[in-house]
Amino acid sequence: MNGQAQQDKFVMTVLKNKKNGYFVEIGSNHPIHINNTFLLEKILEWKGIMIEYDKKYLPLYKEHRQNSIHIINNATLIDYKKLFEQNNVPLNIDYLQIDLEANNGSTLETLEKLDREVLDNYKFATVTFEHDFYSTNYRDTRANSRLIFEKRGYFRVFDDITNFGNPYEDWYVHPSLVDMTYVQSLKQKNQKNYTDCKIKGVLGLNWEKIEY
Fold first, then answer.
1. Alpha carbon of residue 66 to chain centroid
2. Could you give phi then psi for residue 12, rounded to 5 degrees?
3. Domain locations in the chain?
4. Which helix (H) or strand (E) holds 9?
5. Which of 106, 116, 134, 206 is nearest to 163 (CA)?
6. Cα→Cα distances 11→44, 56, 102, 183, 189, Å
7. What Å distances lie between residue 120 and 70, 124, 140, CA to CA?
8. How far apart are alpha carbons 184 and 102 in whole angstroms?
């Protein structure tokens, strides 16, 4: 797996190795190294939209991620309704990644923008959302993001995925687009694997301990 916390394994497993899927990757960074969609594109023949602020990655995207659309821009400034319509993005999208900078508000601002502009019409089967609760509570990103996903009908499979004891991500599914019998069993199976985090009062799930 290529994902930082094997987010790609979560997506592939929940969606039963679906082929020809579609993703929206916000905060793409390097196209291969610690990238959550590389294997989806290369092994399962997915395509999607990669959004990244740092233009240094564009030549690498063109070389290694030829099936996807590359947007070099500030994620908080994009007109997502226009972007989705112009690129014929399917109404049911298989994976959304939001991995930005929670400490400057861009993570929550981008989610709020998606909520205003596209979430009335578009759904994501799986979502990994980086809230970086261990390092910041800027604009209460963790709590406010959970309210938005809950309002939109998403089911939080894993709370506070951790790395070295630091809680930093929530993982979701949309019940209308996945096998909820499997998802419920996955959630239940991993309840025993939650442990105390470095933040007092927070239980987290070490990504290396997830059982599929």
1. 21
2. -65, -40
3. 7-209
4. helix 7-14
5. 206
6. 11, 27, 23, 11, 17
7. 24, 12, 23
8. 29
Amino acid at 22: Y
In sequence order, what are the beta bridge partners of 201?
A: none
d(CA 109, CA 45): 31
DSSP E strands, the chain: 22-26, 47-52, 69-72, 92-98, 123-130, 155-163, 166-173, 194-196, 203-206
Would you state the pLDDT for residue 4?
A: 82
Residue 50's identity, in one-letter code, is M
Closest CA to 113 of 168, 155, 71, 74: 74
Confidence (pLDDT) at 138 = 85
- pLDDT for the residue 40: 97
Handedness of CA 168, 119, 74, 126 (dihedral sign): positive
Q: Which residues of the chain have pLDDT under 50?
A: none
Could you give the count of Cα atoms lying within 13 Å of 13 in the half-sphere of its Cβ?
14
Reported in sequence order, the residue ranges of 7-144 that DSSP labels E, i.e. its strands, are: 22-26, 47-52, 69-72, 92-98, 123-130
Phi, psi of 128 (to 5 degrees): -120, 125
Give the number of other CB atoms < 10 A from CB of residue 101: 15
Bridge partners of 196, per DSSP, are 203
The CATH number given to 7-209 is 3.40.50.150
Of residues 59, 67, 80, the one with CA closest to residue 40: 67
Predicted local confidence at residue 208, as pLDDT = 95
State residue 73's pLDDT score: 97
| Per-residue tokens: 94 | 């298989």
